[in-house]
Amino acid sequence: MAVYKRGYQRYQGPLTSRTARLLVLPWFAWRRLFEQRLLIVLLIVSLFWPLACAVFIYLANHSELWAGLDREVSGLLEINGRFFLTFMNVQAVLAVVLAAFAGPSLVAPDLANNALPLYFSRPLSRTGYALARMAVLAGLLSPVTWIPGLLLFAMQAGMAGWTWLASYWTLAIGLFAGFLFLILQLALVSLTCSAYVKWRAIAGALILAFFFVLAGVAETIDGVLRVTWGAFVNPLRMMYRLWCELLGVAPPENPGLAGSIVMLLVLALILVWVLSRKLRPVEVVS
Amino acid sequence: MAAVIELDNLHVRLGRREVLEGISCRLGVSGAGKAIGLLGPNGAGKSTLIQTILGFHQPSAGCARIFGLDCHKHSRQVRSRLGYMPENDAFIANLSAVTFVHMMAQLSGLPAEAALEKAHETLFHVGLGEARYRPLGTYSLGMKQMAKLAQAIVHGPELVILDEPTNGLDPAARARMLKLIREMKDDHGMSVVLCSHLLRDVEEVCDEVVILKAGRIVHHADLEAERRANRRFVELEVAGDDAAFGEALRDHEIAAVTEGAGRWRIVLPAGVDMAVLWKLVAAHEIDVRRLTHRRDTLEEIFLKAVGHINHTAGEAAAREEAPASGRL
Predict the structure, then answer these.
(1) Which of B70, B77, B34, B30 lies closest to B52, judged by CA?
(2) Cβ burial, residue A219 (10 Å; 0-12/13-18/19+)
(3) Contacts with A, B 109-168, CB within 8 Å
(4) I need a surface site. Which of A28, B125, B127, B159 has the fewest CB within 10 A?
């Protein structure tokens, strides 16, 4: 029978699981995000660098193609931790741009339209809501971060053989863990900015500013005050330090590893605290 | 029979202010399809009570139970059995109504296909069938209210909490909203909590009413019982010689007082219905010019409960009849 002829009846059927309900928010968010052409363009652009890296790996594994080059140049064609660190650095910048584009549309519209009471009057907790929103970004950033990274690793392992894999297998873990930390950081920053500033455009600008302006501030602190701790206010620099450790690449002098980890943790805790203050179904005025 | 809402010495503190100060009551009957009106002046704690039931606030003492489940400890189970229509605009502007209601149904646990079917069905039910593909941001205020109602009932909850559902509606839309609320309880067996400042709305659809003032319950009334009781107060205006009529009333043990010029105030005792009065009028060949049932309106009950008047008109009539009836 046609729906308009049927009339309203209460639903009495089976209900879905808790996990399935949590996935509803990412599913609808992805649908809305992928309706935007600019996002598709950004995603395609984000795949250029992994493609270039794939070509590089192909060349590096076909010595007959560069047999005529001298030793110094051929030494550059080695696939190791530094190669993957370079790959991660470039993709991280693209991931920040993607997060700044997609992140604000996750929480800001819900807050601007007072939709949170509707979500939280259903069997959905605040933690569940935040995790679902983070899953949207994780799903969006994965195809430009760890997935192409691991594909490149697999390609190199396939071409170079077991000897290379036995020497560099830790790179895959480092690559995956490094990008996972980046995604977590980006998701937390995006959600917090989006929750703090209800306007999408301003929230996007704030996300970009958080990463790129803080990098400038860090350099300024070091330069003007002639100190070395400026890098501790640069989240991308601290992430880079962590990646060096994970990929076994010689790290820069500053910031230190322990300091970077502590500062990244403190930053994450502050972001979670701000987020928990903002993601409330009702505003309580004391 | 299990109550829909049980409040047991419920205290809720927001910041340094105690908003609910030890509320205890049992409201509604599970599965009976009754509507409970929640009334009170601004700042009385109505919204806080609703939000506590929804699990948004943690009680500082006591507890609130829905269908026997603690609202705070079992908030997930409680929320899966209720629907909520907030007072303010609450939607996602650039979503179409059908996508919005579909998403809300899925979040309540309906499988995707059933949720879509129910979304269409519910939107037709609330009168948004033709507009269901339009973005919610383009809706009028009345349509937004209907969309909010649709998301509250799409999953077929046992209890629906409606916060000012007729706010900003024109008379036709208001009548439609009240009709839908009546259908929810009468035809679909849902329990309804209606929070409204419009006493006529509450009076029209509710079976029970709770009046809050300064965080306490000041009146809890069964409106149906009050309606029945109110029918016993009659104001009668007759033409002709009514002295014998007064005697006849006394003979039938009907308390009555005359105000002169053929005007009577009568209290029908239990077991005596209006037919007796009509027979007496006919027997004494007097003409009835006017007959009205003196009743306490919800407004009078409310004003008395919040302390603006000392007694309702019905109570006043009853007081006057008691000493006066002896004179006849």
Answers:
(1) B70
(2) middle
(3) 109-111, 114, 117-118, 120-122, 124-125, 129, 151, 153-156
(4) B127
* Residue A225 CA: distances (Å) to CA of A211, A214, A222, A228, B117: 21, 16, 6, 9, 65
What is the per-residue pLDDT for A102?
Answer: 92
CA distance B61 to B8: 9
Which ipTM score applies to this complex? 0.84
The domain limits of chain B are 5-222, 231-327
* Domain covering B231-327, topology: Alpha-Beta Plaits (3.30.70)
Please report, for chain A, the start and end positions of each structural domain, with discontinuous segments joined by +. Answer: 18-278
Closest residue in A to B84 (Cα–Cα) = A121
A285 contacts B15? CB cut-off 8 A: yes
- Residue A28 pLDDT level (bands cut at 50, 70, 90): very high
Q: Confirm if B138 and B95 have CB atoms less than 8 A apart.
A: no
pTM: 0.82
Nearest residue in chain B measured CA to CA from A112: B92
Given a cut of 70, is residue B326 above it in pLDDT?
A: no
> Which class would CATH give B5-222?
alpha beta
Q: Out of B109, B118, B120, whose CB is closest to A21?
A: B109
